[in-house]
Amino acid sequence: MKDKVRKAVFPAAGLGTRFLPATKALPKEMLALVDKPLIQYGVEEAIAAGCEQIIIVTGRNKAEIEDHFDISFELEQLLEKRGKTELLAMTRQISHMARIAYVRQKEAMGLGHAVLMARDLVGDEPFAVILPDDIIEAGVPCLQQMIEVFEQTQSSILATQVVDGPSISSYGVLDCVPVEGSPRVFDVKGLVEKPKPEDAPSRNAIIGRYILTPRIFDVLEKTPLGAGGELQLTDGIKGLLAHEKVYGYSFDGLRFDAGDKFGMLKATVEFALNHRELGTVFREYLKSLSL
Ligand code: G1P
Prior knowledge:
Blueprint: E1 7-11, E2 32-33, E3 36-37, H1 38-48, E4 53-58, H2 63-68, H3 73-81, H4 85-96, E5 99-104, H5 111-117, H6 119-122, E6 127-130, E7 134-137, H7 142-153, E8 156-162, E9 172-179, E10 182-193, E11 204-212, H8 215-222, H9 233-240, E12 246-250, E13 254-257, H10 261-273, H11 279-288
Parallel strand pairs: 1-4, 1-6, 4-5, 8-12
Antiparallel strand pairs: 2-3, 6-11, 7-13, 8-11, 9-10, 10-12
The protein binds 1-O-phosphono-alpha-D-glucopyranose.
1-O-phosphono-alpha-D-glucopyranose binds next to strand 11 and helix 9.
């Protein structure tokens, strides 16, 4: 029987230094994109792709994430009393949307280390990793597109997008060749975390969606610390290549780096324009600006 991707891991222990001062006391995953915290977009994407269990890797000062997905008794009572039925339904839906388990990453030792913290909760099955500050707007959710490729290959799949110019150094970068007959799929030969622009093996950057086979855990255990003195997921996946095939997948969709101030602004404009209640007035407002 073929393996299914049932669990999605959300590394959410980072300090969010790129978004200070907003993230001094607020987890960056709780920053609102229009009217929803970033992490909720990712959780909704995982559920839409068929994941049944969400695993959030948190750290100190991240209690708001757990509160957000919990029942808010006082708020529900108040909304009920005031007859705000739509808001009440929406609030309730958030606390019922998924089975969520939390595990703590006690030290900021990198993305690979965060994923390793989820080992016991994931067990011996393939799983997804979603980086909550990478927001992807797509007709078919990005993770679902990737699961379709996983179902064919039963191999690890990394979301990728072309990044031009020196900002390639902010990413993990693939050394890869296209797979014949599958225009969006790449055979990964190597990976480098945050290379200097002149050392980047391609312009194919890793974006924050991964499907990984459980062998990644054994490999990560043995992976030495890499860029920034941290245990890098990219280095772990490079180690995985010695045992298994890994594919890159150039997803169909728009990606925003909402962990960055400018990226968040761009995402805000895009999501506000498409918002059910705000879209029309916001468009009118933008048109009225004499820039
Ligand atoms: C992480 C990964 C990197 C990936 C990026 C995508 O980096 O380490 O390989 O390209 O996410 O957003 P970070 O943004 O945490 O520095």
